[in-house]
From TrEMBL:
A molecular function (GO) term: transferase activity
Rhodanese domain residues: 78-144
Pfam families xrefs: BLH_phosphatase, Pyr_redox_2
Top-rank taxon, per record: Bacteria
Native source species: Pseudomonas hefeiensis
NCBIfam families with a match to the protein in the record: TIGR01244 family sulfur transferase
Protein name stated in the entry: TIGR01244 family sulfur transferase
Length: 556
């Protein structure tokens, strides 16, 4: 843990984890304050998990969340008041410690000289100059005062952001690029399905962010708070300002765990799990191995979600394990999906239905998970009746694999870049923003209708790279994205239905049918998923190699 002492009785830190609470107790901390909202990252434990672990060792735990870079004066006051009431010493934490330090700085604005606040924060490793400018400017952040400016700024260091940066450098070596991302670790999230069935170990899916960002690209380790597109400026946490000539936005999705009543309090115990969190995918495998009888429920929320096939992948691989163990007949499997069909591209449904029947899975369409009672082991669904009305149905479970509702990140949904539904408003063909010509977007947070998968980002990155350079006068013509997405549906250990499609659900295979027929389960497709795609991701896509991903150019 990187604990930094800020003031008498107060320290701040980056994200903490449940297993660290005993160490914090032994260090002497008597209270913790969480300033990070749930759902910001796929490797982030929910506050309910932290609180349980804290209370178990006798530490008070309090929740005072703030959006990154948007700590209000009122939250600063609330932080100061809470701190005064808590037993000391107190540890406040968020993603990096910046929000907690900002809250402290705002709480001290009327008590300490501003230079003392700056120096105290600086000694702890935090730059509060932007916050002080905001205090001096009566709550406003002057965007004219930029701490950095780059030719291309990329928001997000996930698959889309790293691939876009690498594709840019492959075309224009030496281009001035900065990636803004507060995370320390880059994850190969498509591998978490295989972690959840015991094929991969979780650490195999994680690389440090520093080793993943392309050489020569600046890394701004911060979170974006707001956009000022009229001024070509971004406001970061700590009220810092970065300016750009061209902006690429690819921040990923927010997992909305709190949209399901009772879920945060029981996730990770009582047989409630999810492959959508790094630290819970191993728990999925643990639960699957332990289950010898009873009911297993797998849920799918309303679209859009990243990797729409992932809810089914977890189900098929679990069922296959139970079949191999000879206990499948003792387990009732329910697939409860908010959607109306098994899979959105009809060509792949017949093969999937063969496995539905073979595993004895009960399909429940129009069923949206609304509440979970972990200790009672019950899940409540809002179900569409034949007449179109809804009714609540409660089901018992022994294992519950939950896929949470997913939305664009908060700073996107309230920004001028968003459409009415909160997604980044782009032209689906060029991925250029419909209003701001020097802004492009790709990945999961756009409103294009493609599947939200790493395979889609692999195809989108070269398109965005070309079009950004064209906007800078360094390339000619427009590159076009056809909506390609891919979903390797792991129907059993050793076989995959390789779904590939473009806009409108048009089947778009990458291989001849004699090699891999995507509409049928294939062992070769499994080898592709298990052995080839991970190195292709790390050493190909993220390095700017565009194998089978060269963009189509027009208007030359």
């Amino acid at each position: 843990m990187d604990i930094r002492h800020l003031a008498p009785g107060l320290a701040v830190s980056e994200q903490i984890f449940p297993h660290q609470l005993t160490e914090l107790k032994n260090t002497g901390f008597r209270a913790i304050v969480c300033n990070r909202p749930d759902g910001e990252g796929s490797d982030q434990p929910l506050f309910a998990e932290i609180k349980r672990a804290a209370e178990a060792v006798g530490i008070e735990a309090h929740y005072l969340p703030a959006e990154s870079g948007k700590v209000t004066d009122e939250q600063g006051v609330a932080f100061g008041q809470l701190f005064e009431t808590l037993p000391k010493p107190v540890l406040a934490y968020c993603r990096s410690g910046m929000r907690s330090t900002t809250m402290w700085a705002l709480s001290q604005a009327s008590l300490l000289p501003l230079p003392q606040i700056v120096e105290t924060a600086k000694d702890a490793g935090f730059d509060m100059k932007g916050v002080i400018r905001r205090i001096a400017n009566k709550g406003l952040t002057p965007v004219e005062v930029a701490e950095a400016e780059h030719a291309v700024v990329i928001i997000g260091g996930g698959a889309a952001g790293i691939a876009a940066a690498s594709s840019l450098l492959a075309r224009e070596p030496g281009l001035d690029i900065a990636i803004i991302d507060p995370a320390d670790v880059h994850y190969y999230q498509p591998g978490w399905t295989l972690v959840g069935c015991g094929v991969f170990d979780a650490p195999r899916t994680a690389h440090t962010m520093g080793s993943t960002i392309p050489r020569g690209v600046h890394w701004i380790k911060a979170a974006v708070a707001a956009f000022e597109p009229e001024r070509n400026a971004l406001i970061l946490d700590g009220c810092r300002v970065v300016k750009y000539q061209q902006l690429i936005v690819c921040p990923g999705l927010k997992l909305n765990w709190n949209a399901i009543e009772g879920l945060p309090q029981t996730l990770g115990r009582n047989g409630v799990t999810s492959n959508y969190l790094y630290h819970l995918a191993p728990y999925t495998w643990e639960c699957v191995q332990k289950l010898r009888g009873g009911r297993a429920i797998f849920t799918q929320p309303p679209m859009p979600i990243k990797c729409a096939g992932a809810p089914q992948k977890a189900m098929y691989l679990s069922a296959d394990h139970w079949r191999r163990e000879g206990v499948l007949g003792n387990i009732k499997i329910d697939f409860c999906s908010a959607g109306a069909v098994l899979f959105g591209v009809p060509d792949y449904v017949p093969a999937l239905m063969e496995y539905i029947r073979a595993y004895g899975i009960d399909l429940n369409f129009g069923s949206t998970l609304t509440a979970v009672d972990g200790p009672a082991k019950t899940a409540t669904f809002s179900c569409v009746k034949p007449d179109g009305t809804r009714q609540l149905v409660t089901r018992d479970f022994n294992l519950l694999h939950v896929v949470p509702p997913q939305i664009a990140p908060d700073f996107i949904r309230i920004s001028p870049l968003a459409d009415a539904a909160g997604w980044i408003d782009v032209d689906p063909d060029t991925l250029r923003h419909k209003t701001w010509a020097n802004i492009h977007a790709l990945g999961d947070a756009t409103n294009s209708s493609n599947a939200k998968t790493a395979a889609a980002a692999r195809k989108q990155a070269p398109v965005v790279a070309h079009n950004v350079l064209a906007a800078m006068g360094k390339a000619k013509g427009n590159a076009h994205y056809d909506g390609y997405g891919s979903c390797p549906l792991t129907v059993e250990r050793g076989k995959i239905v390789l779904a590939e499609f473009t806009y409108g659900g048009t089947v778009a295979p990458s291989f001849p049918s004699w090699l891999i027929d995507g509409t049928r389960p294939s062992r070769l497709a499994w080898l592709l998923k298990e052995r080839i795609l991970p190195p292709l991701y790390w050493k190909g896509m993220l390095k700017g190699h565009e194998w089978l991903a060269k963009p189509e150019l027009a208007d030359l």
